Amino acid sequence: MKWERIPLGPLQTNAYILSHSDGTCVIFDPGSEGEKLVHYIEQQGWTPLAILLTHAHFDHIGAINDVQKKWKIPIYIHEQEKEWLADPLLNGSAYFIGEQIKVNYAPQCLKQEQTLKIGNFTFELLETPGHSPGSISYYLREMEVIFSGDVLFAGSIGRTDLPGGNYDQLMRSIHDKLLGLPEETIVLPGHGRETTIGAEMDSNPFLHGF
């Protein structure tokens, strides 16, 4: 298996594609530039199996309709944010970009921490709220990789001033769910470069003294 980061849209939100040697892949947070994303996947000859969302802010969901038109694959999201996909006020598109982003397809809702198996991919789901109430991190133990969305960044943490954000909850999520992972675990965030759990424990100023 291998992962690729594709920054998309004006906020350069990281979409990730995790591909398997059997030619299948899953797509994390297709946030914008849907035609570009679809074209890239087609060029690689991959067959997408699912869209996995870390959360439902507009910059993480904007390309879903384009992907769905092409492949009609399941969309996974935490149940607390299922209504956000079709509501521009909840997903923030109405007041951040003046454009109404509405996902036209019903998602499959994740209700609790669990193991999620899709084709030959197996993820451990970690509920990591704080940036948003339904934020999920997807841990791929065999690759020592976690797709953290906007919870933890290289040298920073997710913002908590958006609707449903909660700073104390975010810090608990990072401490209780992420920092307990092996230090060599690669963190793939929603914006910016990758990092590791160990690097953030050592140098992230937001975590010092926590």
UniProtKB/TrEMBL annotation:
Q: Say yes or no: keyword Chloroplast present.
A: no
- Name the CDD domains on file: metallo-hydrolase-like_MBL-fold
**Which SMART domains would you find in this protein's record?**
Lactamase_B (SM00849)
Q: Which Gene3D superfamilies match?
A: Ribonuclease Z/Hydroxyacylglutathione hydrolase-like
Please tell me whether the keyword ATP-binding is annotated for this protein.
Answer: no
Citing just one GO molecular function, the answer is:
metal ion binding
Keywords for this protein: Hydrolase, Metal-binding, Zinc
**Cofactor list:** Zn(2+)
Describe the location of the Metallo-beta-lactamase domain by residue ranges: 12-191
InterPro entries this protein is in? MBL_Glyoxalase_II, Metallo-B-lactamas, RibonucZ/Hydroxyglut_hydro
Output the superkingdom of the source species.
Bacteria
Pfam (any one): Lactamase_B
Name the UniProt record assigns to this protein: Glyoxylase-like metal-dependent hydrolase (Beta-lactamase superfamily II)
